[in-house]
């Protein structure tokens, strides 16, 4: 049994959140009288094993936890993944008997960093931990963790939260949640409807805010196309989005790894094949979204894909980032690595020159390096959005006029 699920928005405070999680696990084990090796809590980057299907692991944990700890912060209520976690636990709790009006059974709000305002669903949740410490009420748990002089207050707070968690585990929990659902399609409790296609198949950009969307464009063959170019078809499926370059050891499609990283950074993401590349770039430029091109170099051996990539490469407009995957566990790709690199240069040479070293990854060898590289790309893309309102590229020196300087008479 899981005593608690810790829901939080990933960011620069991750180390402090992990410290709180570890301290809380230790306290819960002591208060519950269980062994030190018993898993009592769930934290996404702690409990999910390498290569494990990420959304399903979250669903499983939320379905069986006794309590749901929501770490309130401004970033928390902007995060769609956090809103989906809240929604899933809320749906599980529907019909359960609440101890007081307007409270979701088992949901424990914790103020990490006080948000300026709460979404309606959070305003309706009333839960007082009876923590008298003014610093917690004014500045949140984050401040108790960061300041050495607040250590005693932090220990008291930790004990209070632990008592609530263990007490909740001894009362009838919310009904066991369903494990058979699509987490990616779940609506966020903090946002509007999940972005979706309209009748023409085109996105409806008005449903999501500027910079919150990533368009992943996958340039990869189908199984039939791979067979036609004498390529090992074990890495492909009936659709380009089924491309799984790190199989057979890691058989998940690349899109699942990409979606995991995007969600951790608070982005909504959508995927399409290279046949829609021009459409995706057009929408992204209009609404200042992020475009990431995920490339299998073998796709340039397929005439239809090569034609679209070449057409795209000849235009001035270009994607925010490009990651070319050449799996180290794929002997055929490694045997043809030099030829494939030359093929990429011949097909996407203009983009290789336009993109800087942060936004272009020419040879991604493993799934951990893919996740790490994509995380760097998305973090940089977000910084550029904040800095100058666009992510496509920074203007090189000399491409813009110098700032005017006022001189005296």
Question: What global shape is seen?
Answer: elongated
State the total count of DSSP E strands: 9
Oligomer: single chain
Strand-residue proportion: 5-15%
Helices and strands: which structural class?
alpha/beta
Number of helices: 15
Mean pLDDT over the residues: 80
Spatial order of the strands in the main sheet? 6-5-7-8-9
Distance from N terminus to C terminus (CA atoms, Å) equals 78 Å
- Report Rg: 24 Å
Largest sheet: 5 strands, parallel
Protein name: TIR-like protein FxsC
Pfam family, one: TIR_2
InterPro entries: FxsC_C, FxsC_N, TIR_dom, Toll_tir_struct_dom_sf
Task: Annotate the secondary structure layout.
Elements: E1 2-7, H1 14-32, E2 41-42, H2 44-47, H3 54-64, E3 65-72, H4 80-93, E4 107-111, H5 120-123, H6 134-139, H7 141-146, H8 151-169, E5 213-219, H9 223-228, H10 254-264, E6 268-273, H11 277-287, E7 290-295, H12 303-313, E8 321-325, H13 331-335, H14 337-354, E9 360-364, H15 367-388
Parallel strand pairs: 1-2, 1-3, 3-4, 5-6, 5-7, 7-8, 8-9
Protein name: TIR-like protein FxsC
Organism: Dactylosporangium vinaceum
Keywords:
single chain, 409 residues, alpha/beta, four-stranded parallel sheet, 15 helices, elongated
What do these coordinates show?
- The structure is a single chain.
- This protein has 409 residues and is of the alpha/beta class.
- It is 41% helix and 12% strand.
- The chain has helices at residues 14-32, 44-47, 54-64, 80-93, 120-123, 134-139, 141-146, 151-169, 223-228, 254-264, 277-287, 303-313, 331-335, 337-354, 367-388, and strands at residues 2-7, 41-42, 65-72, 107-111, 213-219, 268-273, 290-295, 321-325, 360-364.
- The protein has a 5-stranded parallel sheet with strand order 6-5-7-8-9. The protein has a 4-stranded parallel sheet with strand order 2-1-3-4, sandwiched between helices.
- Helix 10 (254-264) crosses helix 15 (367-388).
- The longest helix is centred in the C-terminal third of the chain and has 22 residues, at 367-388.
- Mean pLDDT is 80; it is low at 96-102, 194-210 and 392-409.
- This is TIR-like protein FxsC.
